[in-house]
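User: structure tokens for this one?
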Amino acid sequence: MLKDNDLYIARILFAMKKRISSIDTVRGLIMIIMTLDHVRDFLHYPGNPPLNMATTTGILFFTRWITHFCAPTFVFLAGISANLAGQRRSKQQLSLFLLKRGAWLILSDLLIISLIFTFDPGYHVLVLEVLTATGFGMIILALLVWAPLWVIAVAGLSIIFGHNLLDHVQVDPKTVPGGLLTVFLTARGSIFPLGGHRTIAVLYPFLPWAGALLMGYVFGNLYRIDFNIQRRQRILLLSGLSLIILFIVLRSVNHYGDPSPWTNQRNGTVTVLSFLNATKQPPSLLFLCMTLGPVLVLLSFAERFKSSIWAVCRVYGNVPYFYFILHLCVIRILNVLLILIEGLPFKFTGFPLVWNAEGLGYPLWAVYLFWLLILVTLYTPCRWYAQYKKTHSTWWLSYL
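Assistant:
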């Protein structure tokens, strides 16, 4: 028979294995929004960029802008999850787990996402995007978990607040120093030839995104089992509001924190859109303030969300990697089916990133319908897989 102390330890271990519903709720909501962005990428008709202030419309801008919240939240919550994983592992076990997990995410980009984006089994274009950025951040964190938490916080804050000092540094990416600086700090969809008719597309610079993951790890300490819930909610709320205020102040000053200052536009509405149009790649200080601020506020309230709508979000948020890969596969399959239905010639020539067909495209209202269709289609497999993970403990489940 278990003693009182044994029962207490058993309860602690059980609580550590339970998922935190508020994190899954917010993550699921963000992944739903992310799906809209990817459906628009593959199925919206070609036209003016949604963030071009000279030609955009309110609904087109919003459709793109709202998805800015996805990558920062995805990376930040990965940091929180790393902290939660560390609560049931030793430092050595956590460091090794993060190294393996980070390497797996990078490999997923190279082998899976590259194939989905390019439709090229010869892998002539290798794509490094958000999974690689997250994986690189985990590898950095694997080296830093041995340090005190305040060291990790200083490292994360230094990256987030300081990397915009390099906004106007001009380098030649064809040189080794310039190439490294581009990949790690300033990449904006940079393309590097590898030889043998192969290139690598770096869509996400590694280090600025790693800063968001490190700060997620620091905030993960708020989710310790013994941490007061009301205090956690208060810290999250005040931190989020502080970032929002910082964004408004620095954006108004229009001097530091983003390489693209806002400007007066053809009318007041578009001027507001210009104000909100912070730079995603590399993620500027103002971009992260604008996105992570509201996310922290949302996290502060998410523990009180009980309705069925939030339960649906949690289904997707329970299985983030599974959903990420699956939704891209489904969108690509839908993309191919529509090309066949339209009778359009497949495009295999030219730069194959986001492989498509000439003449394919649908209006924005149709994009929203396709988005809802995909969400409904993926609900059942996500719910099944979440239940499977809950009832099985095979080692590979922690990577999928």
